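Running this now, will post back.
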Amino acid sequence: MDIKEIMALSLRRKHHDLQMTQEELAERAGLSACYVGAIERGDVSASVTVLGQIAEALGVDPGDLLKKASPLSKSKAA
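Update: finished.
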């Protein structure tokens, strides 16, 4: 799994955990919903600046969006 896919999964998981839609996330981050969707699908690579904007909108450290989910995290979600 490459870093783009890891970020896509982390981003999707985090905003769902916060019960936030893509549109809400995009608005908070100052981005278009289409662009956030493309990041979540792994169609585009987010710049470091965009990573920071998204992390701030989610209230997380930018590095958290670049970490693979641990097996424990996956079992908690199931």
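The two ends are 21 Å apart (CA to CA). More later if anyone needs it.
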